[in-house]
């Protein structure tokens, strides 16, 4: 409730003053170019990351659940990224995509880039957010792969055997048995993925040192809330307004997902 109270006031933390401004903070959202940029970045991030991490996790889980050699070893290897802290992972990726990092060195040795012509991924608005997307997908896929694997353990083998008798190939079994069976888990994965991407803060903050990156290319809604609340803008009331809007969006997504999930059943 205190956040709601703040959203209707202009707050000055230095003088500890609260000036009632009504709906001015909410109306400001419609004209704030920074807010529009942060929203665009966040939605782009969510639209790319959520489907990719879901599809990749589902495919890897299906492969690891099959009768391949060394599947327990690969399960352990794929789960390792989840043991790395977000801050450490961000620093690692910043090094990998730096001008003199391994990615540029590989592109130069492959002849894709000229010698000394490495791309400054971290300072290029066209690449900065995409690097964070790759990093987030790589770090979240193992967690969702584990969830899918746990669900696949309960999938009756008789369903696959019956499909084989009917002449179904691997792709047909995957699309007609595996995917429908995993619908409830997929709904949960999509929900948590959307919420996680909408709340993405730490990676964007570390990646840009809180500045939002070149031309605000890595500025997200959560990072913008932090900047307005605790940065030089001194706009705690406006930050509270943005936080409320973000919370309402997440609540709406959660309610929709819950409704969809309630209509699903295990096969």
UniProtKB/TrEMBL annotation:
Annotated ranges, domain ABC transmembrane type-1: 39-257
Short name of any one Pfam family annotated for the protein: BPD_transp_1
Family matches, as InterPro entries: ABC_transporter_permease, MetI-like, MetI-like_sf
GO biological process: transmembrane transport
TM annotation in the entry: 43-64, 76-97, 181-201, 235-257
One GO cellular component term: plasma membrane
Membrane-topology annotation of the record: Multi-pass membrane protein
Chief place where the protein resides: membrane
Keyword list, A-Z: Cell membrane, Membrane, Transmembrane, Transmembrane helix, Transport
Compartments where located: Cell membrane
Family membership: Belongs to the binding-protein-dependent transport system permease family.
Cited PANTHER family: ABC TRANSPORTER PERMEASE PROTEIN, INNER MEMBRANE ABC TRANSPORTER PERMEASE PROTEIN YCJO
This protein's name: ABC transporter permease
Organism in which the protein naturally occurs: Faecalibacterium gallinarum
